[in-house]
């Protein structure tokens, strides 16, 4: 312990270090990029995780929805390239208990669908809001995120 303290006392003061260190060779100034990732919910139990740096929203059903549905046996999704408006049907989920439509929580263009769900629909039960994501939408109006429910508001709506 004393060795660490002695070494620290011999260290150069902060003023001795250059103000804009360029050890990585990326230029004299460093740039900081900030990405805001927002997760919101619908009252129909869809969730969207929006990344403002890409403009992409990843759509899933909520864990609450998958638990109410029961064992999911089939997932049908709209094809990539399809333009959707907020509230449009973007697919359906069938379980041993019931079938349910999935609605777009935001407007935009479907960029990608989770192809794994075609062969492994039960992934929705195992990881509904993570590995069981449904599709990715390039939002045409990111301000629509503001009209969706926060985590607290969604939880309150499920409890009532």
Question: How does this structure look, described?
Answer:
It is built from 5 helices and 9 strands, in the order H-E-E-E-H-E-E-E-E-E-H-H-E-H. The protein is α+β, with helices and mostly antiparallel strands. The protein has a domain of 102 residues: OB fold (Dihydrolipoamide Acetyltransferase, E2P) (Beta Barrel), CATH 2.40.50. The strands form 2 sheets. It has a 6-stranded antiparallel beta sheet with strand order 1-2-3-9-8-5. A 3-stranded antiparallel beta sheet has the order 4-6-7. The longest helix has 9 residues. 28% of the residues are buried.
Summarize the structure.
The chain is of the alpha+beta class and 160 residues long.
CATH class of the domain at 41-142: Mainly Beta
**Which structural class is indicated by helix and strand composition?**
alpha+beta
Low-confidence stretches: 1-9, 11-26
Provide the spatial order of strands within the biggest beta sheet: 1-2-3-9-8-5
Largest sheet: 6 strands, antiparallel
Shape: globular
Gyration radius (Cα, Å) is: 23 Å
- The CATH superfamily of the domain at 41-142 bears the name RNA polymerase II/Efflux pump adaptor protein, barrel-sandwich hybrid domain
Run of helices and strands = HEEEHEEEEEHHEH
What separation lies between the terminal Cα atoms? Answer: 58 Å
How many extended strands? 9
Number of helices: 5
Average residue pLDDT: 85
CATH architectural category of the domain at 41-142: Beta Barrel
Q: Assign a percent range to the helix content.
A: 10-25%
Return the CATH topology of the domain at 41-142: OB fold (Dihydrolipoamide Acetyltransferase, E2P)
Instruction: Tell me the β content.
Output: 25-35%
């Amino acid at each position: 312990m004393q060795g660490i303290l002695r070494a620290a006392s011999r260290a150069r003061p902060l003023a001795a270090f250059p103000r804009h260190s360029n050890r990585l060779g990326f230029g004299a100034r460093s740039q900081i990029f900030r990405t805001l990732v927002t997760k919101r919910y619908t009252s129909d139990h869809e969730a969207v995780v929006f990344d403002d740096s890409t403009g992409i929203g990843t759509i899933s059903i909520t864990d609450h929805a998958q638990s109410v549905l029961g064992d999911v046996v089939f997932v049908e999704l709209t094809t990539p390239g399809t333009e959707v408006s907020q509230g449009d049907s973007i697919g359906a989920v069938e379980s041993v208990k019931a079938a349910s439509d999935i609605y777009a929580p935001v407007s935009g263009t479907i960029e990608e669908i989770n192809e794994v769900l075609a062969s492994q629909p039960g992934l929705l039960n195992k990881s509904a809001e993570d590995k069981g994501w449904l599709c990715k939408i390039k939002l045409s109006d990111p301000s629509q995120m503001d009209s969706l429910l926060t985590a607290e508001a969604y939880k309150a709506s499920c409890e009532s």
